[in-house]
Write a structure and sequence with these properties.
The complex is a heterodimer of chains A (about 190) and B (about 425). Chain A is about 30% helix and about 25% strand. Chain A has about 190 residues and is an alpha+beta fold. In chain A, the strands form four sheets. A four-stranded antiparallel beta sheet of chain A has the order 5-6-7-8, with no helix packed on it. The N and C termini of chain A lie far apart (about 65 Å). In chain B, about 60% of the residues lie in helices and about 0% in strands. In chain B, α11 crosses α15. Chain B has a two-stranded antiparallel sheet with strand order 1-2. Chain B is globular, with a radius of gyration of 24 Å. Chain B is mainly alpha-helical and about 425 residues long. Chain B folds into two domains: about 200 residues, Cytochrome Bc1 Complex, Chain C; about 110 residues, plastocyanin oxidoreductase (Helix Hairpins), CATH 1.10.287. The two termini of chain B are about 15 Å apart. Classes of the chains: A alpha+beta (about 190), B mainly alpha (about 425). Chains A and B meet through loops of A and α7 and α8 of B. Chain A: The main subunits of complex b-c1 are: cytochrome b, cytochrome c1 and the Rieske protein.
Chain lengths: ~190, ~425
């Protein structure tokens, strides 16, 4: 053993690593961590700021002035939300739609809150590219989008493309029979 | 060049003192005075100069508009009207900036199609060409950001549609969208940061333009024959020949520009953008500016949202692969009888895509968009590689000079500096 180490003095040295190697790796690691640490605040500053988040607090909507069949626009977090009071006919018609044939299958009772079947609350931007669909138009008692021709039914379910999915339902809960709070689901604030 | 005594030689003591410390006069002289350009360049080669002129116009008018513009959701629309009504010559600055963007794209499209026709993208100009594609991408981003700033209906809904496109990107899409919005939807933080980025990107374009011109001066210019400069008789000095021709072309192009500014200032815009942004109402028909229409048609050609996004970006990025997809050994379409016809079909397809992009996405328009989109990609992926392999090019001229004067003729000519025509440059 002693013989072999003595015979290869030049080959043995690099295995231990030199001080230069250490400095190279330490500097490289320091640079990478430093670059990341500097980049982080720049990227993070572009995320929604504290004021924007605060302005996105839950929103209470009084349902009492809304009449049968009416669609009311409200804004929460800058996003348009439709609050719609369905008529008896619309409720029955929607329950009769075979779920399996829908583009984005969703049963009628999953689109509304239990015990409040009259009320539909959905985001008001088409799920294709974000245009605002026009209410009480199209062939399905719901909305039709003027931009690319998507159609939604009275429960905001997509019935004709190019929109890929149903109008999403924002987090909301009934405070009473005539008042909802958008942005809160069952007492928990939305993230 | 030095053999012809055509290098910059400082005369005065001050010039000598300065040149030995910063040889910038010599650099300008060798790049824009003595630089040899092919003697057969046509007016299609003046669009680079026109584009530089428009980059300058856009930056100057833009900086001046920024003195009066207010980048906020509340103030943007009113401040643009304030520019139009109250600011001295504000209407001129704004119309020049808005129409300048369109003219910029007119010029860049001529520049790109000229490049494709004469095979300028082929070796050894690949890097030069890819830098051009990068400039084009930066131009598109800048134009999109700028169009959102007046905060009219088209601004707002254009921003909404395009940022929703980005959300289709898997995994990181939502994060990118949120970082662009700075909120939960397009709003005040969005217009504020779009203004900042709209101010930044032109300087990045200027930086890449420097690289583009640098690369051009390494490889030299292509020309209508596609064959390189072989002797000094094939070339003329940049100044006065190219300089004067470029300036003349810029002036002529300015007539078109001025006609739009003074007679049709809103022809290329949309009336809906004079309605303040309203998040509750979408304009009946959202269309992008004319220069994005072919890509908008490609986006809508596929029923899948993600698929459309991928195709749209690929349509631009595939340009960058042209140097390797084209298998022909001949550059210029002047000598490529088969490919020349495919080239014009490709131009027609691009124009038709532009027309389709302005139409509602229904019925026959969608089918036509799908056919044209397929052809657009087939041109690069099928036509370019195959025609290059099977085509027999017509005979190339022996030299650039021969292409100008006809074969076998003696010319006492005005080639590079040896001739009398170059005399002005040697007077220093």
């Amino acid at each position: 053993m002693a013989n072999t180490t003595a015979a290869a003095p030049a080959g043995a040295a690099p295995q231990e690593g030199t001080r230069r190697d250490f400095l190279f790796l330490a500097t490289g690691a320091g640079l990478a961590v430093g670059a990341g640490a500097v980049a982080w605040p720049f990227v993070a500053s572009m995320a929604p700021d504290a004021a924007t988040i605060a302005a996105g607090a839950p929103l209470e909507v009084d349902l009492s002035p809304i009449t049968d069949g009416q669609i009311v626009n409200v804004f929460w977090r800058g996003k348009l939300i439709f609050v719609r009071k369905l008529t008896e006919k619309e409720i029955t018609d929607m329950k009769a739609v075979p779920v399996g044939q829908l583009i984005d299958p969703a049963a009628a009772d999953t689109r509304v809150k239990k015990g409040h079947e009259q009320w539909l609350v959905v985001y008001g931007n088409c799920t294709h590219l974000g245009c605002v669909p026009i209410g009480h138009s199209g062939n399905f008692e719901g909305w039709s989008c003027p931009c690319h021709g998507s159609q939604f039914d009275a429960l905001g379910r997509v019935r004709r493309g190019p929109a890929p999915i149903n109008l999403p339902i924002p987090p909301y809960a009934f405070q009473s029979d005539t008042k909802i709070r958008i942005g809160e689901e069952g007492g928990k604030a939305a993230a | 060049m030095s053999a012809h005594g055509n290098t910059y030689v400082p005369r005065s003591r001050l010039a000598k003192w300065f040149e030995s410390r910063l040889p910038i006069v010599g650099l300008v002289h060798s790049s824009f005075v003595a630089f040899p350009v092919p003697r057969n360049l046509t007016y299609f080669w003046t669009f680079g100069a026109i584009l530089i002129a428009f980059l300058g116009i856009q930056i100057i008018t833009g900086v001046w508009l920024a003195m009066h513009y207010e980048p906020s959701a509340k103030g943007a629309f009113d401040s643009v009207e304030h520019i139009m009504r109250d600011v001295n010559y504000g209407w001129l600055l704004r119309y020049a900036h808005a129409n300048g963007a369109s003219m910029f794209f007119v010029a860049v499209y001529v520049h790109i199609f000229r490049n494709l026709y004469y095979g300028s993208y082929k070796a050894p100009r690949e890097v030069l060409y890819i830098l051009g594609v990068v400039i084009y991408l930066l131009m598109m981003a800048t134009a999109f950001l700028g169009y959102t700033l007046p905060w009219g209906q088209m601004s707002y809904w254009g921003a909404t549609v395009i940022t929703n496109i980005l959300a289709a990107i898997p995994v990181v899409g939502d994060t990118i969208q949120s970082l662009l919005w700075g909120g939960y939807s397009v709003g005040n933080p969005t217009v504020n940061r779009f203004f900042s980025l709209h101010f930044l990107l032109p300087w990045m374009i200027a930086g890449v333009v420097v690289l583009h011109v640098w690369a051009l001066h390494v490889t030299g210019q292509n020309n209508p024959t596609g064959i390189p400069i072989k002797s000094s008789k094939d070339a003329v000095p940049f100044t006065p020949y190219a300089t004067i021709k470029d300036v003349f072309a810029v002036v002529v192009f300015m007539i078109l520009f001025a006609w739009f500014i003074f007679y049709q200032p809103n022809y290329l815009g949309h009336a809906d953008n004079y309605v303040p942004a309203n998040p509750a109402v979408t304009p009946a028909h959202i269309v992008p500016e004319w220069y994005f229409l072919p890509f908008y048609a490609i986006l809508r050609a596929v029923p899948s949202k993600l698929g459309g996004v991928i195709l749209m970006f690929s349509a631009v990025l595939i340009l960058a692969l042209a140097p390797w997809l084209d298998t022909s050994r001949v550059r210029s379409c002047n000598y490529r009888p088969i490919y020349r016809q495919f080239f014009w079909v490709f131009v027609a397809v691009c124009v038709i895509l532009g027309w389709l992009g302005a139409k509602p996405p229904e019925g026959g328009y969608v089918i036509a968009s799908q056919i044209c989109t397929a052809y657009y990609f087939a041109h690069f992926l099928v036509v370019m590689p195959l025609v290059g392999l099977f085509e027999t090019p017509t005979p190339l001229p022996g030299s650039i000079l021969e292409s100008v004067t006809g074969p076998g003729k003696q010319v006492g000519g005005s080639g590079m500096p040896a001739g009398a025509a170059a005399a002005p440059t040697t007077k220093g």
